């Protein structure tokens, strides 16, 4: 806390400096689901390309909003150049979407002979594993990142991490899958293949009969056979999974990698962001800062919520409106050119004046009602702003060293390059609109 009793302002995340630094080769956007990671990754890619970098954005978002925003009919496992993005000094943008199964297939095809690769790809257990085994998506994201970095075709890779229930899954899941493939269960199933022939089957049937009987009941005899066939075919590849996962993990720790934790100014999202910041520190991974999306601001912050509500109540109750407002003068006025006035003329004049006053009163009431409504909307906005600031301040008090950039809440979804450029400008500015 400062001497004035207000929360110290966190350091500002210099996004353009990060994007312009040629030493920055990988930016990983991570955070809880639904906080705008995909949009942030895409906006960073567009801005970096238009500032002269050769960029590829890797997204793992199943909603495919990135393709729509970039005007690409479809994204797949191959980087595609984005038309309409041309930066100085040869800057350009490519984008791709992780195809989890295809990436797994490429690993099998690249690390085994054609006959064995075909046997693995046709195996039912492998097909289930590659399509949806817990942690496979995150592991394959790591694999694809390693492949892109090894090609050295781009000087900046922006990664949109999987929309996991927990942001920590991106770091944990590859290790879990590697442990599974290297674990005791796999080694036991591999034992008959290592012994070979009838001796192997005898070993399995006699030495492990109780265990395999239990597994057959749990998994089904057919599935157990598929697993054993898969393990026998994959025998020489298991060590490679762990080795590559470890290598990519080290790549994430290396200089040239920058993590951006993406969040929204909401308690649950910032709680997840805090966990991730602490985990990155524990793993010695380079954190660039926090991107706080969908932050509300106002051009009239000098008018507090309390004053706006009080003014709205006064208008609605008529306490600050002069109901006469000069109308008495109309009531007493007469036509200066008229020497005499008949009773009929007086009656007509009175009726006209009454109608005019009634219409004026109705207009005044409408204006007062609209103004009161606008004041109440402003009060609600100021309450949201205050709540978001309290939530942000709790985070920054726990992690005062984390640089922050705030991105204004937009009225709708981003669906084109112009929208991504607008997000990029807000990322670089670091403050919400109207703040």
Written description of the protein model:
The chain has 435 residues and is of the alpha/beta class. It is 58% helix and 11% strand. It has 18 helices and 8 strands. It has helices at residues 15-20, 37-50, 65-69, 100-110, 114-121, 124-132, 136-151, 169-182, 184-195, 197-207, 209-219, 221-234, 238-253, 267-282, 305-317, 327-332, 343-398, 417-429, and strands spanning 26-30, 54-59, 80-86, 92-97, 156-160, 257-263, 287-295, 404-408. Strands 3-4-2-5-1-6-7-8 form an 8-stranded mixed β-sheet, with helices on both faces. β6, α14 and β7 (287-295) form a beta-alpha-beta unit. The longest helix is centred in the last third of the chain and has 56 residues, at 343-398. It is elongated, with a radius of gyration of 33 Å.
How would you characterize the largest beta sheet? 8 strands, mixed
Give me the Rg, rounded: 33 Å
Distance linking N and C termini: 21 Å
Percentage of residues in DSSP E strands: 5-15%
Unreliable spans are 1-6, 193-197, 203-219, 321-334
Which structural class best describes the helix and strand composition?
alpha/beta
Task: Give the mean pLDDT.
Answer: 77
Which strand order spans the largest sheet, edge to edge or round the barrel? 3-4-2-5-1-6-7-8
Count the beta strands.
8
Secondary structure: helix percent: 55-70%
Q: From N to C, what is the helix and strand string?
A: HEHEHEEHHHHEHHHHHHEHEHHHEH
Shape: elongated
Number of helices: 18
């Amino acid at each position: 806390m400062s001497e004035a009793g207000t929360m110290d302002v966190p350091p500002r995340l210099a996004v353009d400096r990060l994007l312009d630094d040629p030493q920055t080769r990988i930016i990983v956007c991570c955070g809880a689901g639904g906080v705008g990671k995909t949009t942030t990754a895409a906006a960073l890619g567009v801005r970096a390309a238009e500032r002269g970098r050769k960029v590829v954005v890797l997204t793992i978002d199943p909603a495919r909003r990135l393709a729509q925003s970039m005007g690409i009919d479809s994204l797949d496992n191959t980087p595609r150049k984005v038309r309409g993005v041309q930066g100085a000094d040869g800057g350009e943008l490519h984008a791709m979407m992780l195809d989890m199964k295809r990436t797994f297939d490429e690993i099998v095809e690249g690390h085994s002979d054609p006959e064995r690769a075909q046997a693995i790809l046709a195996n039912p257990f492998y097909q289930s594993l590659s399509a949806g085994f817990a942690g496979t998506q995150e592991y394959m994201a790591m694999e694809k990142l390693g492949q892109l970095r090894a090609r050295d075709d781009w000087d900046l890779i922006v990664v949109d991490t999987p929309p996991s229930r927990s942001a920590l899954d991106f770091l944990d899941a590859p290790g879990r899958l590697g442990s599974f493939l290297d674990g005791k269960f796999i080694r036991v199933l591999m034992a008959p293949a290592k012994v070979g022939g009838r001796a192997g089957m005898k070993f399995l049937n006699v030495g492990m009969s109780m265990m395999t009987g239990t597994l057959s009941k749990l998994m089904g005899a057919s599935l157990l056979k598929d697993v054993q066939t898969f393990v026998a075919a994959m025998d020489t590849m298991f060590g490679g999974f762990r080795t590559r996962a470890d290598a990519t993990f080290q790549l994430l720790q290396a200089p040239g990698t920058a993590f951006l934790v993406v969040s929204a100014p909401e308690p649950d999202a910032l709680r997840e962001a805090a966990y991730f910041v602490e985990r990155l520190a524990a793993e010695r991974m380079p954190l660039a800062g926090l991107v706080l999306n969908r932050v509300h601001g106002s051009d009239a912050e000098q008018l507090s919520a309390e004053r706006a509500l009080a003014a709205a109540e006064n208008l609605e109750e008529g306490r600050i409106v002069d109901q006469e407002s000069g109308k008495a003068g109309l009531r007493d006025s007469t036509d200066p050119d008229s020497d005499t006035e008949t009773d009929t003329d007086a009656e007509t004049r009175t009726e006209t004046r009454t109608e005019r006053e009634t219409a004026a009163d109705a207009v005044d009431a409408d204006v007062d009602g609209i103004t009161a409504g606008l004041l109440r909307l402003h009060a609600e906005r100021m309450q949201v702003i205050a709540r978001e600031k309290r939530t942000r301040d709790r985070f920054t008090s726990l992690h005062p060293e984390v640089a922050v950039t705030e991105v204004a809440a937009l009225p709708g979804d981003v669906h084109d390059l112009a929208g991504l450029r607008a997000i990029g400008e807000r990322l670089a500015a670091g403050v919400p609109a109207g703040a």
